Amino acid sequence: MVQFSRICFRKYGNFVDNLRLYVRGGSGGMGLPRLGGQGGNGGDVWVVATKNMTLKRFKDKYPQKRFVGGAGANSSVRALKGERGKDKEILAPVGITVTTDDGKILGDLNAEGDRLMVVKGGHGGSYHSAFEPSKGQAKNLRLDLKLIADLGLVGFPNAGKSSLLVAMSNATPQIANYAFTTLKPEIGKLMYKDYKQISVADLPGLIEGAHINKGMGHKFLKHVERTKQLLFVVDVCGFQLASKTPFRSAFEAVQLLTKELELYKEELVSKPALLVVNKMDLPDAEDKLAELKDQLQNPDEFSDLLPDDMIPKNYMTFRHVVPVSASTGFGVDTLKSCIRESLDEDAAKAHEAIHHDRLQTLRFPSHKQFS
Fold first, then answer.
1. Pairing of strands 138-145, 18-24
2. What is the pLDDT of residues 184-203, one digit of tens each?
3. In whole angstroms, what is the distance from residue 217 CA to residue 63 CA?
């Protein structure tokens, strides 16, 4: 049995997950025509991934959101080659995608210390430019945060995702018997006795149509992209979002969640996934669980339960289907073990693949090494 302890839970107050800012490289320095001197180049602007930084802190620290590289020094009699302007570093959170206003991706910063040059400084004046310097590049950029976590919780409102995290920890997120109690992402850390840590992203509940930005829409779905695995959470008795919306069984909920992910970005449904069937303390839960397992074994036979446009191209295959009751604690220890087992399995495969590639390189070295 895997040993584990509590989850440490971190809440994001006034959560910000995207910002727009202006960046400009420093101008080059003047050249000195009389002696053929060359001005210094302007400084570049870099975005640097930094630990303990959030976009909320970034916004508070740099309210103007304007960053300019240092100007290059002019050429002079004392220094024919002017000094280069100082680079400007923008300290941003880990997990940032940097894009231009028109959506072009300039790069991702996935680990602490990752650096991305976003604009270059201008050239210093020289003989080739009639000793006139050039201005630095200028752009409007967007910093878009996509949370990096081992596991992303996927579920419709009121499926019990927040309650599940409480059952695994002493955390106290807002919980109530109505939809949308999770309105901003929250990251939990599941800590094991052998010091292994597993991060879990509890994200706002999806609704049908999230892929076209209904409800939390893309604000939720983009955060699923960087999780290693998915943890689907469904109510064993099904759910109904509102009196005017149709009732959905647990099987329908699984398939609708799959379709929403598929319509947003098809490769998301190829991620490894586990299924948590919550609220097993409710009446008839055992019968409904047996029915769900049968439906998941033969999903094509039950596809007529779904609207035609909401049938997934590919049905999700779950590594584990774990019945739990977040309110009583039933099945929670089993779930923790399954989560650890699934992530360890992938880590072992990745390690084996790296080891295999290294062996292949030793056995069949590149011809370039001998040329």
1. antiparallel
2. 566 777 777 787 878 887 76
3. 27
